[in-house]
Every structure is written in C-alpha cells, then in structure tokens.
Amino acid sequence: xxxxxxxxxxQVVEPIIDPEREIVDPHHHLWPSGKGLRYFNDELASxxxxxxxxxxxxxxxCHAAYRKEGPEHLRPVGETQxxxxxxxxxxxxxxxAPPISGIVAHxxxxxxxRLGDVLDAHSEAAGGRFRGIRDALxxxxxxxxxxxxxxxxxxxxxxxxxxAGVAALGQRGLxxxxxxxxxQNREFLDLARAVPDTTMVLDHFGTPVGVGSFAGRHDDYFxxxxxxxxxxxxxxxxxAKLGGLAMPDNGFGFDRAPAPPTADEFLAVQRxxxxxAIECFGPERCMFESNFPVDRMAISYTVLWNALKRLASQxxxxxxxxLFSGTATRVYRL
Length: 334
Known about the structure:
Blueprint: H1 6-9, E1 22-28, H2 41-48, E2 53-60, H3 77-93, E3 100-105, H4 115-125, E4 130-134, H5 160-171, E5 175-178, H6 185-194, E6 200-203, H7 218-233, E7 238-242, H8 263-281, E8 286-288, H9 301-312, H10 317-331
Parallel strand pairs: 1-2, 2-3, 3-4, 4-5, 5-6, 6-7, 7-8
Helix pairs in contact: 3-4, 6-7, 7-8, 8-9
C-alpha cells in the first residue's frame, strides 16, 4: 500500500476530538490537474468537512497555474486568478465546505518600482482575498536528497532590493510569509530585524531537515534550533505558523511507514518542537496549520488536527482559541 494514498491513510481512523472547536487552516495548497500533488476542490473539501469544524482556509503559493505568456514578473498572478476562481467554484460545488478566505501569493520582491504593479494585479485577481506574499528564502544544501528541493537565490535575505520589497509589503498592510530550512534561521532573523514594520510569518518551524547529511540528526541540532527560534521570537513583527513537520524532507519517517501515525504517535515525535515554539512566541503569535497536501503524504487531515488538539489541551481556552483560529484570523485579516 503506497504511503499518502487514501487507502493508506484510511488505515488509521480516530473519533474527532473537540469537534466544535473552530479552526482556521492558514496554510494549504491547490494544484490544477496534472501539476504538483493532486489536490483540488474535491480533495480539499473532503478533508475540511471530515469532522473537524474548519471555518475558513488560506491558500499559500505553490507555483501552480502561472500564466504562460505575458511579462515574466506578472505570470504569478495567474495562480491568484486560478485560486480565486477555484474558491468561487468551491462555494457552489461544496456549499458545506469552509471558504478559501485568504490568498498568500508569490511575487519577486526584488522588482523595485515594478513590484507595485504585481501587488495591484494580485489584489485585482484575488476577489478581495489577497493577504500577502511568499517569496521564499529556501535554498537546499543537498537538493539531491530532498523530495522538494529549493534553489532560491543564495543569501537573498541580505539583498537590499529584497528587503525593500519586504518593507513595501508592510506599507500596504500585507504579510510576508517565509519558507526556509533550519540552517537558514539566522538569515530570517536578520531580515526580521532589518524590516521591523512588516508582519512576517515563519512557516513550518523553519523547516527542520532530516534527509541527506541531516538524516537521523534532529537531536544534533535541536538545541541550536531552539536558540534560533527564541531569537526569532524576540522580534515582535514575527508570528509562527506551526505545522509542516510531516513533510518527507523533515525525515521523521511517517511517509515510509506501513501505516500512518495515530495522533499519539505523531505527538510522541513532534511535541517538543511545537511546545518550544509556543513557549517562545506565545499562543497569541502562533497558528496551527495543515500544510496539505504536502503533509498528507504522512498523516490524514483528521488525525493531524486530533494531534494538535491533544497538544493544545494543556493551554487555557483563550490560548487554544488563538492557536486554532484567532491568530490566523488576525494576521490574515479574515
């Protein structure tokens, strides 16, 4: 049975914990047929209506449906148009599914004077859903070892043009989402300090890597990662998106197991990463995420949110509300 398939995921079915708890899922992707992982409206609706009370979602750029013609810098606007049209169609085809209420799009933040044109075009295409930009810093040291390699410009966080672009987002009230790897956490920290007036979203804990030379070495760098996260949390303009630790490149092995993990099995491996981030940022600056369908290669949507609810049960009601919906609602203006 192939990991990540529905049949493989269906081997673990759990009762829904705290089914009335409102959830805003602030990080998922969509791909049109034939591109990326298969995940479109039917798959999204199947997951978000499977038992948990998901009330809204946020799409995050994934290089889907770019325009094939026209100026290069405007081609990512095709993705925003695709998602806005998908959101409208979802409301009709799956009226019980939560709406896609926000879009985090892509733009080259080094464009200078042309960046404004791209942001305006995203705003126009999004149908009121445009909330921010992700122009990642991720650069794989060993791309051959990654299932999802990345080769963004080296040390892009220090490029004055890039920093000016991140600052321009803040001036428009837009967020900057960042995907990078754990060994780039200090680069992100320097960027956050250099552009304090832009709200920045740290995606996926800074993506701890567990493949290639990092395979089996989480413990070797965990203390360094903890210090980096604490330093990043000292920047009041940064909020943390907590999830995306079930990706194959994280190296926890869920995607290679005969069956997916239960909520308890997931937490046995993941808990320390979540608890440290929440301790550093505080629940009011943290939001749980699914990162689907990438994390779907390792765990089902219902079991993932069960695990997060078990983890969050140690916090107060107001803190749980922040983690599951409040922070995401505030940061993405939903």
